[in-house]
Amino acid sequence: MKLYNFFRSGTSYRLRIALNLKGVDTEQVALDLRKEAHLSKEFKAINPQQLVPALTLDNGTTLIQSPAIIEWLEERYPQPRLLPQDPEARAHVRALAAIVGCDIHPINNRRILEYLRKNFGADEAAILAWCGTWISAGFDAMETLLAADPGRGAFCHGQAPGLADVYLVPQVESARRFKVDLSRWPLISAVDAACAQLEAFQRAAPAAQADAA
């Protein structure tokens, strides 16, 4: 399998974590978004949306969109589980992941920020304020949900990392990059620290990628 990704992309990062947790090895193909390598005709033939990540399977099928790929992983490689068995707990974990995947990341990703810079004249202070606003709103909600969850352990839910952690850790990394003070979310910080002890998360981190610079 070939994984087309960028070391600093949050969606690529979350998929690398999921692949590592599942023990699935891939050949990584780095696309430097800073040089707009993802906009090439060659990559458009692989992923018409020209976004990372994309995962090309051994049979030539290419999967796109990190939520869809992670769902495929959960179905194709059911152990270890990323979702709990209880339906209500599964909904809770999916909701935590969706706060990041639907409400924080999409409006803070590179193409949105580039549009703000080029079309609205946003300087770096404005970009940091923009990102901090949406990260803070999402993290405030997540912190409250974590505090109210009787099933919370060292991770977002339970004593093993799951889907919510896969989404949360890259967003914490992004928060640091955008200079957001994480001290106001001690539970989120504790989950991030617990995940940082695990090899699956360590190997997926942006700084551990061959193309990191």
From TrEMBL:
GST C-terminal domain: residues covered: 86-213
Organism: Hylemonella gracilis str. Niagara R
Pfam families in the record: GST_N_3
Family: Belongs to the GST superfamily. Zeta family.
Gene Ontology CC annotations of this record: cytoplasm
Gene Ontology MF terms: glutathione transferase activity; maleylacetoacetate isomerase activity
Keywords: Isomerase
Domain of life: Bacteria
Designated name of the protein: Maleylacetoacetate isomerase
Domain GST N-terminal: 1-81
GO biological process per UniProt: glutathione metabolic process; L-phenylalanine catabolic process
InterPro entries, alphabetized: Glutathione-S-Trfase_C-like, Glutathione-S-Trfase_C_sf, Glutathione_S-Trfase, Glutathione_S-Trfase_N, GST_Zeta, GST_Zeta_C, GST_Zeta_N, Thioredoxin-like_sf
